[in-house]
Amino acid sequence: MAAIITDTFDYNDIVRVLDLDEAFVFHQIDALQSKYWRILIKTKPKGLKIFPPVMVSGNRGIDYMIFMLSRDWQTTKKQRLLDCMYFGVYRQSDGFHLVGFMHLDYNPMAKAEKAFFTPHFFDRYRERTGLPLDMPKMEVMKDWIMKNYHLNSDAQGSEKYPDGIFCAYPSGVGLGRELPDGNSEMKTFVTYDMLRGEQVEKGESQSKMAKVQEEDGFKIYKDIVESLLKNRGL
After folding, report:
1. What does residue 62 show for φ and ψ, rounded to 5 degrees?
2. pLDDT grade, residue 95 (50/70/90)?
3. Residue 67 in contact with residue 51, Cβ under 8 Å?
4. How many Cα atoms sit within 13 Å of 15 on the Cβ side?
5. 70: exposed, middle or buried (C-beta count within 10 Å: 0-12, 13-18, 19+)?
6. Chain centre distance of CA 113
7. What is the β-pairing status of strands 54-57 and 83-92?
């Protein structure tokens, strides 16, 4: 596998690189645990706490943004480790691409689905949410992540777009397509006031559903933690 991502790489090639990098990324996450655990012991934050991202460079052309987080101090204390979000960033001739990893069933042992975000998506996000036009693309990506980690996607296939995806975020809607392997590509971003017709109702419904799913998912997550700790005799 080439060390540098080129324009000849399609999503299947990128997925293979991501899979090869997986052990490297998890090693980086494990190495960060002790540092942020000491911070949590001192601060004992209530509710969700997301730390600024740590950037690590892979050796195959993809860099990673790792966000260490505590969903809740009491739960984090029980499992004695932090959760995390991480995103892959790679560059092709059209700019920076982002890859998100989503555990849609809240099972930490499940294989994450991959959501690919094009440079155009972040151009439209920056423009349509009023961010400075000269804001570096990497900072735009970080802004989007911190403001939009709640999401709800819906495969809304139509005759024209049979693989279409409509994804509601707190700050707007991502439009994209489902890839043949079950992963997804998000191609552009619109704000809620840009929606028309039945899209308005769909956007409002999915935005509310995203918050409910996040709350329900956290309850399921706590049950999983309790089960894992019980099985380990802790």
Report:
1. -120, 130
2. very high
3. yes
4. 16
5. buried
6. 10
7. unpaired
Residue found by looking up tokens 């899979």 in the block: 19
User: What does the block give as tokens for 65?
Assistant: 């943004």
Q: Find which of 47-51, 52-56, 76-80, 105-109 is predicted with most confidence, using mean pLDDT.
A: 52-56
HSE, CB side, 13 Å, CA atoms: give it for residue 123: 9
Tokens of 43: 């601060």
Three-state SS for 163-219 is: CEEEEEECCEEEEEEECCCCCEEEEEEECHHHCCCHHHHHHHHHHHHHHHHHHHHHH
More confident site: 173 or 27: 27
pLDDT bin (cut points 50, 70, 90) of residue 167 is confident
- Summarised one tens digit per residue, pLDDT across range 137-163 is 999 999 999 988 765 555 555 566 678
pLDDT per position as a tens digit, 186-221: 999 998 888 765 554 554 555 555 555 555 544 544
Q: Which residue has the tokens 């700019």?
A: 95
Four-residue CA torsion sign, 186, 102, 22, 138: positive
Q: Which residue in the block uniquely carries the two structure tokens 């000491």? A: 38
CB 102 within 8 A of CB 112: yes
